[in-house]
Amino acid sequence: xxxxxxxxxxxxxxxxxxxxxxxxxxxxxxxxxxxxxxxxxxxxxxxxxxxxxxxxxxxxxxxxxxxxxxxxxxxxxxxxxxxxxxxxxxxxxxxxxxxxxxxxxxxxxxxxxxxxxxxxxxxxxxxxxxxxxxxxx
Length: 137
Description:
eight-stranded antiparallel β-sheet; single chain; two-stranded antiparallel sheet; 14 strands
């Protein structure tokens, strides 16, 4: 029975580690924070730079998570490329619960599906990666 309990605990622990769930230690204690019913962080102002998978979110800015623990949105600390899309720093980037890019502000001109999108403007994608909208040249 103890073995089964340990295996179950390990599985729960690994699931939270894989999903990227953040704990309250990333949040500025002097700012507001919201949590999901399970106590997992839903949104807060970051205490310091937050890094996940090569993406860096700016300190003292709003960060949000999906209920599955994946990053929902943050303000980029530095340029980031997601699925070949060049996202600029100091702008908000957002993701679908699956982790696929939803929106960002382009760092440079970008062409997808024959559409030429201009730099410093937002781009929006469908979850399957198809271009939904952008400001075109």
